Amino acid sequence: MAQTTQTERTTSTSTVFTRLADRSYRHRWLALIAWVAVLVAVTVAAQVVGSDYRNDFALPGTDSQRALDMLRERAPAQAGATAQVVVQRADGLAARPTRDRIEAMLRDVRELPRVAEVRSPYEDPSAMSRDGTVAYATVVFDAPAEQVPGEDVRRIMDTAQAARGDGLRVELGGDPVRNAQESEGGAAEGVGMLAALVILVLLFGSLLAASLPIVIAVFAVGSAVGVVALASHLATIADFTAPLMLLVGLGVGIDYALLVFSRYRGELLAGADRAAATRTALDTAGRTVFFAGCTVIVALLGLIALGLGSLRGVAVAIAVTVLVTMIASLTLLPALLAVVGARVERGVRKRASRAIRREGDRWRAWSTLVQRRPWAALVLAVGALLALAWPTLDMRLGFADAGTDAPSATSRAAYDLLAEGFGAGFNGPLVVVVRGDTEAAATVQQALSTTAGVAATTPPLPSSADLSTIIVFPDAGPQDARTAELVDRLRSQTLPPLAAGSGATLLVGGSTAAVVDFADAVSGRLPIFVGLVVGLSALLLLLVFRSVLIPIKAALLNLLSVAAAMGAITLVFQDGRFGAQPGPIEAYVPVMIFAIAFGLSMDYEVFLLARMHEEWQRTRDAQLAIREGLATTGRIVTAAAAIMVLVFGSFLLDPGRMLQQFGLGLAVAVLLDALVIRCLIVPAVMRLLGTRAWWLPRWLDRSLPHVALEAGPADGPVPR
């Protein structure tokens, strides 16, 4: 009865969403042609122009950035990226034939593009291990690692490795090599879409109906990727943005289209004709999609508050993906329903006629069970989530280095050989920049060599009349927490007295120090970001549901699900569970997962609470509202969550560690949100709150603008 009433009411009113539905439905072919034209145009343009993705790891104000800027200004030859050509031979590298082969290879490398300098191990005794079996040559590039083209680095790799054989091993390491290593890529997108299609077919019993959300996702993601690829020529957008857009776009696109289509299907079963069902679907589920999409966009744009240039482009690109997906769900889907609606309706009615029980009865029974024992459900569920979230307290941010690469990668082999020949800290050297006279540099070098945690130092390397660098090798690996502690100790204890006594400027830089600075920057600004996103999301919920307690509950539960997802990432990737290479959590991952997962969890929150609110306004029965809200949304939320879990989880097949962490974190967050929070905690909390859940002080109600998720008579008559 509730469904029929809603259909009749929506049919007799006109809103922005019903007018949008009518126009898309009536002008179906125009809408389809417009979307096809947009997709083709941006795809062709992106193919012709290409992309210009590039990373921006600048951290103004930090020691590592100041050191890099000083080297670029006064000694540009030392500011370029470096790579190591690591050679190893069991019987030693000193024999003349071996030496001739290596030096000939290095001469060839020196002639290649983007190579500024090559330092032979035979010219520097410190570049040869004590037993003479491992040595390295340093290749200096003419630009930072992110600006060196991958094809140029691969030419260097091929040239160097052509010398191996006959007992001589040649491997290459360094950031440019890691960036340029060609991977075969994962089958993530294909696996995720295939799994989503299987679930949709099982849900709707029709391949045609199941394909509609997939089509929406493909159009939306394809258009967004093309637009962002073109925009990469105008703004700095990180090179890992496109895979993240696919990851989020596929999940969100299928999710939003599914929410709208499921309401359309429900209206057909309630007796509405196809046009009326489309209007009602957009005026109810469409509003929910619009609100949920805006919440995700707000959460993503909150990343700008972090002030990290490398994340701004990523945040805007993914926000554009969500925006295009939302628009496609509200314009392209009604047009598709108008074209294939008759076939879809026949399938829906045929499947409904074979149904043994009323749809939603199992969810009604489950809701009743939870409401009988609300405290038990609440305590057990919250306890489980807190236990999973506990490892988050020990999360260590950073960037994975070659030590976490696949054992078959040349960067990993070079890393292991250098650690074997020179010690673990050799793979994470610190660069101390000294701006002062030679006496000051010598004093600094002597003090550094006796500092706890330092394995060795090089003599000061003069760069100009008053600038020199000292390479400091920690006694621990670059991912070891002791190396980060050493950086902090040098900056806070060792160097300040030396700088005060000599009048020199002393800065700790290098890639390892930059990672420490980036992790500290993220950790320091994270509370501001979390507070901003949670506050804005809670305000939106307050406006929509006219309740004080519901936004508080939603914010706390969403934070809990995200924290549990972070705990799962920590267990797997930091602690090395389930066969993963142990290492730090990529510094980008927690903030990106928080923004995306917090926004997505609001999707289900709004979808579920909107139906509860609709029933509450109709009956003013709090328990019935909980039961009917879960009954009408439980099946769809579970299916949508299963699709997202499979799409996100499929990125565990990707060879990139960062995407694996994103995939696992988002999959766990959605799984916990849909199964634990929506099915257990929300009905339990709503039962305990009762009518107080919808309480809002009168003075606040009068002062807040009205934003409704359900259409009402006040919206006005339909123009004739």
From TrEMBL:
Residues 243-339 form the SSD domain. Keywords: Cell membrane, Membrane, Transmembrane, Transmembrane helix. It comes from Dactylosporangium roseum. It is a multi-pass membrane protein. Pfam families: MMPL. The chain crosses the membrane at residues 29-50, 191-209, 214-234, 240-261, 289-308, 314-341, 374-393, 526-545, 554-573, 585-609, 630-652, 664-689. PROSITE patterns: SSD (PS50156). It is found in: Cell membrane. It comes from the Bacteria. Belongs to the resistance-nodulation-cell division (RND) (TC 2.A.6) family. MmpL subfamily. This is MMPL family transporter. The keyword Cell membrane applies. Its main location: membrane. The keyword NAD does not apply. InterPro entries: MMPL_dom (IPR004869), Mycobact_MmpL (IPR050545), SSD (IPR000731). Signal peptide: none annotated.
